[in-house]
């Protein structure tokens, strides 16, 4: 069967818009996520605690990850200094986000899109010196909450810069959950010749009900890696209304019932979503969390 790699992002993207929770609660969620069989987990972010206080314990969480040797953990960084901190904490994979529009980029990292793109070179040099994998993720790849539709050429230019600087992986993110399957396949068709052999990932939000459909279209168009968050936990604190990561259990249900192979166990993912709901203390958007899978009725 065709295989799709799922990266669990509940611990970083899922928690970044929540009030800070204790490290013990994060470790409880991590244990539940690890029990799903997932092979890749985005664990935290090395960013300013004043901007994202829920990630202030990044180094403390990193110190506990050795308990899960079968999982590749990654951390998001927003600058060369963040990359140094993540590598010093023991991460062997990092993600660097470049927004395709200036307004969101300034709100997110205080730099224009071009300025953020120019830092790819330094981040790759820092990472590769320590044999660390670098992934560039293009935020607002389809639409900006401030500037409207994103010109495709902006995404292609960032992709070309990433390729030229030796980035290991590339991903496109629907930061505010506005894209639809046709727009997804169109962008991917234009991206694939640019990125060459770099593995292509996708990060979708279900904010407007199209996240799962867009993720499925992306797989059909050539994406081999998808991000998701148990329970649909999370969103972006710098984009108004950008809630609703696609739920891991819903993605697993969709893919496996459609003939794809994934590493994540469906029932364990539903159980992890229950833990996520417990640690944040409120309901989560996942329909499957409420309804269960069809086998159980």
UniProtKB/TrEMBL annotation:
For this entry, list what GO says about its biological process.
ketone body biosynthetic process; L-leucine catabolic process
Do you know which Pfam families this protein is assigned to?
Answer: HMGL-like
The answer on whether this UniProt entry bears the keyword Metal-binding reads yes
Q: Which SUPFAM superfamilies match?
A: Aldolase
Q: Recite the UniProt keywords alphabetically.
A: Lyase, Metal-binding
Q: Identify the residues that the record assigns to the Pyruvate carboxyltransferase domain, covering every copy.
A: 4-270
Output the superkingdom of the source species.
Bacteria
Q: Which GO terms describe its molecular function?
A: hydroxymethylglutaryl-CoA lyase activity; metal ion binding
- List, alphabetically, the PROSITE patterns matched: PYR_CT
Q: Which PANTHER family match?
A: HYDROXYMETHYLGLUTARYL-COA LYASE
Q: Which family does it belong to?
A: Belongs to the HMG-CoA lyase family.
What's this protein's name?
Hydroxymethylglutaryl-CoA lyase
* Native species: Mycobacterium angelicum
């Amino acid at each position: 069967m065709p295989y799709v790699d799922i990266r669990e992002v509940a611990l970083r993207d899922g928690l970044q818009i929540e009030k800070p929770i204790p490290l013990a609660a994060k470790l409880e969620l991590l244990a539940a996520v690890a029990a799903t069989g997932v092979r890749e987990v985005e664990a935290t972010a090395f960013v300013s605690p004043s901007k994202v206080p829920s990630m202030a314990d990044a180094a403390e969480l990193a110190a506990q990850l050795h308990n899960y040797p079968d999982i590749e953990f990654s951390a998001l960084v927003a600058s060369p200094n963040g990359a140094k901190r993540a590598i010093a904490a023991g991460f062997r994979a990092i993600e660097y986000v470049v927004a395709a529009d200036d307004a969101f980029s300034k709100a997110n990292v205080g730099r224009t899109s071009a300025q953020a793109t120019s830092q790819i070179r330094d981040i790759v040099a820092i990472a590769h010196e320590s044999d660390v994998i670098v992934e560039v993720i293009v935020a607002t790849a389809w639409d900006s909450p401030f500037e409207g539709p994103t010109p495709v050429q902006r995404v292609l230019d960032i992709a070309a810069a990433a390729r030229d600087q030796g980035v290991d992986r590339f991903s496109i993110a629907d930061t505010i959950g506005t894209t639809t399957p046709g727009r997804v396949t169109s962008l991917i068709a234009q991206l694939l010749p640019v990125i060459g052999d770099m593995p292509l990932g996708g990060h979708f939000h279900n904010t407007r009900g199209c996240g799962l459909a867009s993720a499925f279209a992306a797989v059909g168009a050539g994406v081999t890696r998808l991000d998701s968050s148990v329970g649909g936990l999370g969103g972006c604190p710098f984009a108004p209304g950008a809630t609703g990561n696609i739920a891991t259990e819903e993605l697993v249900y969709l893919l496996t019932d459609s003939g794809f192979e994934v590493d994540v166990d469906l029932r364990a993912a539903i159980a992890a979503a229950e833990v996520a709901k417990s640690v944040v203390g409120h309901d989560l958007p996942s329909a499957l969390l409420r309804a269960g899978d069809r086998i159980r009725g």
